Amino acid sequence: MKIYSKSIRLVALAATVVVTGGAFAAFNMDATTAATITYASELKFLTDTMTLGDGGKVNTQLGAGMSGSQSRFIRLQLTNAAFSSSAASAPTTAGSLPNTGAFATAQQVVGGGTGDTFVVYQLTAQASGQRVEDVVTMYVPPLKSISTASDVVVNYKVYSSAELAAEGTSTPLYTKSVSYAKFATGMKVTATGNTAGDAQATVVSQYKSFAANTAASSANTGLLGTLWISTTDAKGRDGSTAVTLGELLSGSTAGTLLVSGDFSAASSVFLGTSTCGSANAGVFTASSATVGVKQSATITLPTSLASAPYGSVAASAGYLCYKADGTTAIPRATAITGQLTLAASSSATVATPAAVTLGNVTRDGTTLQAPFVQTTAGWVPRIVLTNTGTSAASYTGTVTAGPSNVIGGTANAVATNASLSGSIPAGGQVIIEGTAFPTFTQSPRGFIVFDIGGVNSVVNGVYQLVNGTTGSITNINLARPSNAYGTAIQ
Q1: In whole angstroms, what is the distance from residue 454 CA to residue 427 CA?
Q2: Residue 424: predicted pLDDT
Q3: Burial class of residue 56, CB neighbours in 10 A (0-12, 13-18, 19+)
Q4: How many Å apart are CA 486 and CA 190, to the nearest integer?
Q5: Most exposed among 42, 177, 297, 369, judged by the fewest C-beta atoms under 10 Å?
Q6: So what's the pLDDT on residue 456?
Q7: pTM reported for the whole predicted model
Q8: What's the first-to-final CA gap in the chain, in angstroms?
Q9: How far is CA 48 from CA 84, 160, 245, in A?
Q10: Is residue 165's pLDDT more than 90?
Q11: In whole angstroms, what is the distance from residue 39 CA to residue 48 CA?
Q12: E strands along 80-213, which residues?
């Protein structure tokens, strides 16, 4: 018996419907390293399709030798995928089932319909027989993935009978399984705070404008941070090039960005260039109000976002900017968060990203806190503010009443002197005596927050309690809260 090597060609199913645009070699199941493709998991492969190899060409060795005129049955099984069309649409560009040159006969015997996950072929060897190493070439139509939660696997099995091949569970004469497709996230969202520092309101402007070092184009505009929407290395539908935002996002609208924070001093919040010079994504006046305080703004993302990473769109329009109205004091220590709502294309499903911190608004003065003050009979309270700088520093103390009891109790309020203000001389002190302390409607206790127009390193404060009977003194340093916020990255 003469055994020789040859190429065997089978057309398993039609390949007339091809939606890919990439160039492929055949999918070789015997390659040392499988040519597994990682697709963007957002793409809808349940309704749209992916194509195996070069127009559906799959190569593998026969795997089991055949004597002259002997029949074998090969089963091509898919895991997590199904055929998108059937053999009924043959012939294809690859021709009908060949029965000359490679095999005496080759015919489809079971499976292979639209929606099926397997097909079985009967091969009859030529009189000279077939070798184990002979190459079998099959053409399959585009596949529809059932789920992006697991791999698409191609399984090739050789059986001695049609019954065993149709059943597919018995031990085959030869088997080979290769992962054809994996799935991974194709889009990522990154938010980074201003690398030059927080958008900082200046004490010299009475906190009505921002410092020049915040990369703002004007004194009343502060750069908060950057928003980047881009793609990963996952492949697009053609399986050869990286996925684009155009494949994932709608061409008519890319979505919206809801920014939240304290915008009580803002005239607008917008996405612009790195110098906040222009609003490439459009300006939205922060008019959403709760108890008179602007708390959110919705910004429409540009449609050009659907074709490129946000940072490369419209002169790098991925920078979130805060424009102050110039008349209202910018609140201290405010974190600005963002929630994206993205509009997916018809061929993709895009998850809603988690909310991120886009930036922070701070003040360049000093904040000191007296977390607990009281005006109790027999005790003399006072607060001492010290300024070791070379310039006078203005101060404003805002008083908030505590409850009448430790937990619960009748509501308490500040009756008089709810605000304490003045100026600390250069190299001097201000002593706020207990007689200037506020009075309360219920229990005589609360807390005071001082905003001081001086550099943090030269301003200090002490809360002092003097026992009117014994003269004993207790000094407690005023708390100095941190304005630091972390950078959020998704």
Answers
A1: 12
A2: 92
A3: buried
A4: 14
A5: 177
A6: 81
A7: 0.68
A8: 65
A9: 9, 36, 17
A10: yes
A11: 13
A12: 81-83, 105-111, 118-124, 135-139, 143-145, 152-159, 174-184, 187-193, 199-201
Q: Dig out the tokens for 374 from the structure.
A: 């009281």
Entry field: residues in the chain: 490
pLDDT band at 39 (very low <50, low <70, confident <90, very high): very high
Contact 158, 176 (CB under 8 A): no
For 217, counting Cβ atoms within 10 Å of its Cβ (0-12 exposed, 13-18 middle, 19+ buried), the class is middle
What pLDDT shows up at residue 486?
32
Measured from the Cβ of residue 110, the count of other Cβ atoms closer than 10 Å reads 18
**CATH class label, 366-477:** mainly beta
- CA distances to 92, 437, 454 from 238, rounded to whole Å, are 20, 73, 61
Quick one: average pLDDT of 166-175? 95
The radius of gyration computed from the CA coordinates of the chain, to the nearest angstrom, equals 36
**Distance set, CA 441 to CA 371, 413, 447 (Å):** 19, 5, 15
Sorted by where each begins, the domain ranges of the chain are 7-184, 187-363, 366-477
**Phi-psi region for residue 277, left (φ > 0), alpha (ψ -120 to 50) or beta?**
alpha
Task: Let me know: does 176 contact 60? Beta carbons within 8 Å.
Answer: yes
Q: Name the strand (E) or helix (H) holding 167.
A: helix 162-167
Please, what sign has the CA dihedral across residues 215, 217, 223, 228? negative
Q: Which SS3 state, helix, strand or coil, does residue 442 take?
A: coil
